[in-house]
TrEMBL record:
EC number per UniProt: 2.8.1.7
Keywords, alphabetical: Aminotransferase, Pyridoxal phosphate, Transferase
Gene3D superfamilies: Aspartate Aminotransferase, domain 1, Type I PLP-dependent aspartate aminotransferase-like (Major domain)
Protein name (record): Cysteine desulfurase
Domain Aminotransferase class V, chain residue ranges per copy: 13-385
Alphabetical list of InterPro entries matching this protein: Aminotrans_V_dom, Aminotrans_V_PyrdxlP_BS, Cys_dSase_SufS, PyrdxlP-dep_Trfase, PyrdxlP-dep_Trfase_major, PyrdxlP-dep_Trfase_small
Main enzyme class: transferase
Cofactor(s) required for function per UniProt: pyridoxal 5'-phosphate
A Pfam family recorded for this sequence: Aminotran_5
């Protein structure tokens, strides 16, 4: 399967898939075709090429809806990425539904893109942010959530899978707790969509966002799903072409969802390549579905954690059973030095705060080293990581 990925050539060990996944050739080809012999705009042209492009663009929307277990393709909004998806909800839904004194519940492990948009909204509206703590092993503490949500909470916004710890949220329990107090639940599915089954009906959330580049697709495209009744009541996010019904200087009316939220010429080639990425990932997952990718990656995490434990001075973070992501520190060695030495060994990991500074504060550390796996990862990656870390350990004594 590695041969499908030009970005993996050269025998290096790519352990930064949580940041962004390498692309299979079929995705690169789909994007090149869409930018080359098939290229034209969508939704406007009367000529055949543009009509075909529109069909391909809308087929991608249907495929995305099917992949997510959405009720209809009209529930799928193409955005630039998860970051834009969250900003869209904060600005549009939040602008109407969050007022002075209202509360928004986040958690200690959120990515900055699921913190800052809410802080900006709260500041604008005079609302408050609450932070759900973590369990000792680094999961969002749902017992705490259940007892601390109140009628003042209008929104709960949580990572489905942590990008630092790999912890998986009990999403249905979180949904139940949110809905019990009349709050909506947004799930940040950036790290879940590429490695586990996501089914909107089953998850029972109200909003779900993810980024195409983490699902082996291109950058510049992401998905926002929202319940249709919520979407219909949401005002536009940006104004411009394509999102309107009728424009006049006397006043403008807007298109229904999803068009209302997709102002301007969309990311045509990226959306078409995302379709190819979904097809590729689901084909690799095979009969067992996305659950088999989860099992493959979490087995690699278990192997990595077991081996890491045998290296002196390593501290592991996060739960034993997690999605394909593991964070660690080594006493007396800065994670950046770990990353630099591993790079000399042909092992690419991420070192830093992973856009989760409040989580680093929680552990009282500035950074971690993080290894993350993808569908192309295997035992040789774990072995190279461990061999590299043994060298780090020797260098630093
Ligand atoms: N949330 C999580 C959990 C993530 O891992 C990321 C990407 N690191 C984001 C949000 C933001 O995604 P993007 O930068 O693609 O918008």
């Amino acid at each position: 399967m590695r041969d499908d990925f030009p970005g993996l050539a050269g025998g290096w060990h790519y352990l930064d898939t949580a940041a962004t996944a390498q692309k299979p050739q079929v995705v690169i080809d789909a994007m090149a075709r869409a930018m080359g012999e098939d290229y034209a705009t969508v939704h406007r042209g009367v000529y055949a090429r543009s009509a075909n492009m529109t069909l391909a663009f809308e087929a991608a929307r249907r495929r995305t809806a099917e992949f997510m277990g959405a009720g209809s393709e009209n529930e799928i909004i193409f955005v630039r990425g998860a970051t834009e998806g969250i900003n869209l909800v904060a600005s549009s839904w939040g602008g109407v539904n969050i007022g002075a004194g209202d509360r928004i519940m986040l958690s200690q492990l959120e990515h900055h893109s699921n913190i800052v948009p809410w802080q900006m909204l709260a500041e604008r509206k005079g609302a408050h942010i609450d932070v759900c703590p973590l369990t000792a092993d680094g999961r969002i503490d749902l017992d705490w959530l259940e007892t601390n949500l109140t009628q003042a909470h209008k929104l709960v916004s949580l990572a489905h899978v942590s990008n630092v710890l790999g912890s998986v949220l009990g999403a249905q329990r979180a949904a139940k707790a949110a809905h019990k107090v009349g709050a909506k639940l947004l799930l940040d599915g950036c790290q879940a969509a590429p490695r586990m089954r996501i089914d909107m009906a089953e998850l029972d959330c109200d909003f779900y966002v993810w980024s195409g580049h983490k699902l082996y697709g291109p950058t510049g495209v992401g998905v926002l799903w929202a319940r249709p009744d919520i979407l219909e009541a949401m005002p536009p996010y940006q104004g411009g072409g394509a999102m309107i019904d009728k424009v006049s200087f006397a006043g403008t009316t807007y298109a229904p969802a999803p068009g209302r939220f997709e102002a301007g010429t969309p990311m045509i080639t990226e959306v078409i390549a995302l379709h190819a990425a979904i097809d590729y990932v689901t084909a690799v997952a095979g009969e067992g579905g996305m659950a088999s990718l989860f099992a493959h990656e979490s087995a690699l995490v278990t192997a990595a954690r077991t081996a890491l434990r045998n290296i002196n001075s390593i501290t592991l973070y996060g739960p034993e059973k997690s999605a394909g992501i593991v964070s660690f520190t080594m006493e007396g060695v800065h994670p950046h030095d770990i990353g630099t030495i591993l790079d000399e060994e042909g092992v690419a990991i991420r070192a830093g705060h992973h856009c989760a500074q409040p989580l680093m504060d929680h552990y009282g550390i500035p950074a971690t080293a993080r290894a993350s796996f993808g569908l192309y990862s295997d035992e040789s990656d774990v072995e190279a990581l461990i061999a590299g870390l043994e060298r780090v350990s020797r260098i630093f004594g």
